[in-house]
Specification:
The protein is 26% helix and 26% strand. It is α+β, with helices and mostly antiparallel strands. It has an eight-stranded mixed sheet with strand order 6-5-9-3-2-13-16-15. The protein has a six-stranded mixed sheet with strand order 1-21-22-20-19-18, with helices on one face. The chain has a four-stranded antiparallel sheet with strand order 7-8-4-12, with no helix packed on it. Helix 2 packs parallel to helix 3, helix 5 crosses helix 9 and helix 11 runs antiparallel to helix 12. The longest helix has 18 residues. About 3% of the residues have low confidence.
Length: 619
Amino acid sequence: MRKILLGIASLALLASCATYKTVKNTKQTVAVEINLNTVVNDKVMVEVNPQKIKEETLVYNIPAIVPGTYAMSNYGKFVSDFKAFDYKGKELATKKLNENSWQINNAKSMDKISYWIDDTFDSKKEHKIYVMAGTNIEEGKNFLLNLPGFIGYFNGKKELPYEISITHPTNLYETSSLINKNTTKTDNSKDIFLAPRYDEISDNPIMYAPLNNVNFTVNGIDVNLAIYSPNNKHKAADLKEALKTMMTAQTNFLKGFETTNEYNVLVYLFDPEIYKFQGYGALEHRSSTTVVYPETMSKEQFASNMINGTISHEFFHIVSPLSVHSEEIHSFDFNKANMSEHLWMYEGMTEYFANLFQVNQGLISEDEFVSEMNTKIGSSLRFNDAMSFTKMSKNILDPEYAKNYGNVYQKGALIGMCLDIILREESKGTYGVRNMMLDLSKKYGKNSAFKDENIIAEIVKMTYPSVGEFFKTHVQGATPINYTSFFNKVGVKSETKTEKSAYFIDAKGQPFISVNSDKKIFFTIKTNSALTALGIIAGDILESVNGEKISLANIRPIIGKTMQWKAGDKITIEVTRDGKLIQASGNYVQPTSESTGLVIEKLPATNPKVILRNAWLKN
């Protein structure tokens, strides 16, 4: 998963089982019916028929947490009017056990259950569901079906095959990696999807929208991009070449890995005037991804941010955790979270690959790549740098650790980078983390799982003792990493210079503000000449800018306005310092800030540092 917080910076905030293209030949199939033509109070009805039941009592569960997310979702809170019926249509006694589970009594006589489902996008209910894992019911226009938000499972029957019948408006077309029996589309009013077990339902979202698709094939993968743009601002065809270029480079980078035969990209573009989402991003699946982004971005921003940033990250999840994963993920418990220790691999290595492939395949320069790594170093220091990564990962649902989750995309990627340099140095350039992940994927693959507590020892055994020391000290241990020592090995050095900036963002797009645990926006130690001239100091809580009160919901457009300031403009910024409101005013001045970046050293081609750097970035 990749989440982007609105307004402050491009801070990149798991796992799904494989999609199989065969369905078990069994008489007992869980039949599900959803009618998208009948929307009542922004809800749709779901009917579930498990066929013949042998148990006296049966429990039906809607997921509390789903693969790919590291927060409790509790989709059950969106269920209402839950009922069970016998074969004569008589209602049976049911009992709600908790927010996500219902018990059916006298289940032997049960024919089916039914309930109404509300969506998460415009719900007034408080919840922590990531928008890309959310659901949308927009009558006649769009239905985003992240299926755990609609369909559950019966205790002891999660391995049964499912048949999902969806009746829908004829002007809307489905996009999904699930098998659809309605292949001819002569009647575009009903689809019947097949899944061999419940995990495949969780792993395969469906989006219904007007046709706005493009298809192409790259290195044997059939790719389908579907976009829902509520105000018709963006066409899938406009992003085809950018997506094709990116996926060609990615699949070349992953040569030798088992990937997928098809990949569906489901993009929901939201209108920020209607939905005040605090964040957006994407959620990975074995052969698809759901993407939620603001419709107000330009074509160029989509190509740069959404495709090369977010979607590229999601596609690399094919490697980890979808092919290399622990037992906690392979046998995922949707209603009792048991988290893995290895977010350094699942998200960190994935994010590292999403950057490395671009320089490896010539999409960006070496200087651009090391600049991005330098940005990640700066971003990682906003989190607790003296925290065991494996301990954080295992306890990520605990609030103490959850607030550091965003670091998996920052320090997690840097862990991957350091491991890569260690491996390249030890192997004299012939073996890196890409080779390591390929070996692990061949050993385990999508159908096998490693033991959480053993995988680091296995990696050390197949590589070098120095890798074990790095894990022990910096991943399992809590000692911060000295990145300078790693960059020195590959001829990358630090360089400080003074650059023009804006009042709130530097020349590289990095902010002079951040968000604390109380969701207050404060000024960081990093600053610029204009803020200093106004008297703003680190720790000041930002209250207003030129009379506009600041919140997380409006900080992004306000920052946009500040970037238009020019000579002659009057500036007034209100902050809270030590509990007192302070007003700082003055005339506009051009802000400058010191920027310490990484640059490639100019060395002879025969220099050992250059040879190691070439092995690191080009092999």
